[in-house]
């Protein structure tokens, strides 16, 4: 395949998740539809590129890095909202919006905690990071995957939070993307980043469970 063809294919892969989120939230205004589109895209992609995913080895250091960083993410997320809850958002408005989207019940919470970290990490740090690294530099691959990983989070932040907080809150997502990419490259495995991501998502879902629902 030509360089131009590879570039176009990579752009489609990088923007695909954002397009799915946009269609689900902005066209259908439905979390279940969004989940079907988004996770469907990630699942099909990961199955088609399963040979590129890499290692799932589970060394002690990877477990420690994953759990340690994940716990820090969880505490930072929950404590930050707990302390600054009056300045973060109107939780009643968020509750009404999530009900309109159809985000209710343990099922959707478990999807975001158990399925989301695995599929997102396989997609971004398992395939796309390594693909871009082979075609360019390590730094560019890390920054690019973190940017596009953050991009679709803006779509939900815009609806859940007011300006300029909605943009500011995307920065930690970008930072997490940089961190997980770095850990993925240094350990050579996805286990640590999946565990870390799972605990970070658990922190976000704890906010929903205790402050929103």
Largest sheet: none
Global structural class? mainly alpha
Number of helices: 9
Indicate the radius of gyration in whole angstroms.
17 Å
Q: What's the SSE pattern?
A: HHHHHHHHH
Tally of individual domains: 1
Task: Give the end-to-end Cα distance, rounded to a whole number of Å.
Answer: 50 Å
Overall morphology: globular
Strand composition percent:
under 5%
Helix percent band: over 70%
Uncertain spans: none
Give a count of the beta strands, DSSP E runs of length 2 or more.
Answer: 0
Mean pLDDT: 88
Task: Write a structural description.
There is one protein chain. This protein is an all-alpha fold and 213 residues long. The protein has one domain (59-212). It has nine helices and no strands. Helix 3 (60-88) runs parallel beside helix 9 (191-212), helix 5 runs antiparallel to helix 6 (138-160) and helix 8 (170-187) packs antiparallel against helix 9. The longest helix is centred in the middle third of the chain and has 30 residues, at 106-135. The model has no long low-confidence stretch (mean pLDDT 88).
